[in-house]
Amino acid sequence: MRLLLLTLCILLGGNNLRLEAKKHFFSNYNFCHITEEAGLPNNSVTAVMKDSFGYIWVATQDGLARYDGYRFLSYGVKEPLYRLKGNYVYTLCEDRQKRLWVGSEAGLDLIDLRTGLSVPAADLGATSELSTLFNSFVRSVIQTTDGSIWVVTDKMLWCLELDRSGVVTDCYRMQAEADESVSAIAEIEGGVCAGVGNCIYRIVKEGDKLRKQQLSESIVPFSDDWRISCLQADGDFLWIGSNRGLFRYYRQTKTMKRYRYSSHREGMLSQAYITDMKLTSDGSLVVSTFNGLNVYDRESDTFSFIRRVENSEERGLNSNIIVCLFTDGQDIWAGTQDGGVNLLYLSRRLEVSRLGDIPWRLSPGRTPQISAVTEDKKGNLWIGTIEGGLYRMNPQTESVQHYAFTPNSSTSIISNNVNGILIDSDNHLWAYTWGAGISELDLNKSQPVFRQHSNGEVPGLEDDFIMSAVEDPVNKGIWFGATHGLIFYDKSQERFSRINLDVDVNEFESVGSLCVDRKNRLWFGTSEGLFIIDLFSFARSRRHLNYVYLRYKLDDKKSTQVERINSVFQDSRGVIWLGGKGTGLYRVIADDMNRFQFRHYGPAEGFDEKTVYGVTEDELGNIWIATENGLSRLLVNSDTFIAYGKSDGLLDKGYDANALYFSQQYNRLYCGKDHGLYQVQLRKPAGLMGSHGVKVSSVRINEGSWMYAEKKSLSGL
Length: 717
Description:
By secondary structure, this protein is mainly beta. The protein contains four helices and 57 strands. Strands 1-27-26-25 form a four-stranded antiparallel beta sheet, with no helix packed on it. A four-stranded antiparallel beta sheet has the order 2-3-4-5, with no helix packed on it. The longest helix is centred in the N-terminal third of the chain and has 22 residues, at 2-23. Mean pLDDT is 87; it is low at 1-23 and 685-694.
């Protein structure tokens, strides 16, 4: 008896292990949500496919779009370049002639995938039957292995046989009977099967007609209202999705099995209404429903599922209503009713690793918040924290030295709350704080000690709340941005002075960034707009400043929206970049006699973020941007954005401007916030060796619409 119980425990335990392993199938995936904000025509997605050129096509209830991984090219009834008969697109299929068949409520469109342009129906052959087909309500299009095109309309089933040039040689039809429309179609071994009414039939050709044959006596209607929604061939199995659950037909034994659903019991489907099914390259069967996504475990003959989580930005689906599926290798593209496309992919695009085991000196239960990162001449990283003081780290040996505030000491750092760090041309480190003043450290000395600058002891330092700093080569000093405006430190006289601006606004909620450009102008970004100051004017009197004040939205002179600048950055080419709160990213494109013009980057340019916290530049001249959702990288030469988030290994988002730093010496990006300090590098794809050609996917001329990149559109460039 004990042996029997032990055997049962082992068997049951083994089954639970398999269930647990499959339960974590989706935890191996990263999630990316592609929605209207990224340029998708509509968040109600009806079909997804990948063409032979590698582009993803997404059909929606309001148009069609081609996606190259960065931006969309849209097709629709009102599109000036790429028009469709109807906007409600149901189905997509590519034929052997590299033409895309697009089925909508208004009929069929053909698109030449080489040019992106429409193909006239007459190119298929001038027949009255084709005219009828091309103007019918099209629900589904598939291509079989012999190259034939099968089309399901609201009233008929069609089969078109094509020659090598793509011209129709034969046409077969089957009229749908009352209440028996074709609801699903798939190719199986030996032909094509279809769900017609509440039955499944093999479809055969007779003359110019299509005729139904019973597929198997074992496949009987589950109920009078049973309707087939999708079919998937899987070796000896035929999976049947329906409005009454999922069924599996086994051809060898001619048996049917029904899989039940439960929203809370393990091993079952998430819902009875099956909308689509696809196999991944490793043979995993993925099943979509109106209540989540499922995967089949062949060993245990059970399912596990995922559904939308409360905070879908963190990890998971952003919608439970999944309408269609497409698999590309092991990647899963899930089209939803209201959340656009959910892409589930395995690979990460970044190498993100925590840097060192820093012994954070914090009170129990508290985690460090990184507030600033910079690098000295020796390659040491200096890390400022909130409540943890200042740290110096050698990133190669990962040795760490901690500098903390010591009460009643005049040689310690002035506060453990470090807001930012500046290392000037004299190799002095300035750690400015929120609430206590500024600490100065001479890095030229072998054993340096801090010099404290506080408004309680140092004349001229009238504001403790320091948020930004920059060195002034014209006036041989340092500018500090504070809640009460600008503070200037004269190095030769070792004196602080507050500099008032001749405007009504001299109190700021934030002074996010200071930058001195190549023309020796101080860019002063605040919560009340942008000041651009002529530093030579300050050199004359050390009191008065000549400046340009841009208070409202930078790209709209008529706007009354106050610009809130978080970051100002000058790249290696001398280009000025600005990040705003609620207004996104800007680039200065004209600067003539203090008449500034700005280019704004938004969804039309592939940048979907509304708030930018920090900007920096990598060794290739590409721009890295800290946003509300993580990081973005602008490929400057192609004007293309790539967004990175938690699915790429980032544990934080909303990195402050002072906590985003690219090291030219180590060729990597450093950033930090709530989870410590991390180094970020681009991940090189496995097997990527040598040089590869560049594929131009789309072009835009003189700020016009994006177009297909084919010979005609590139000829004038």
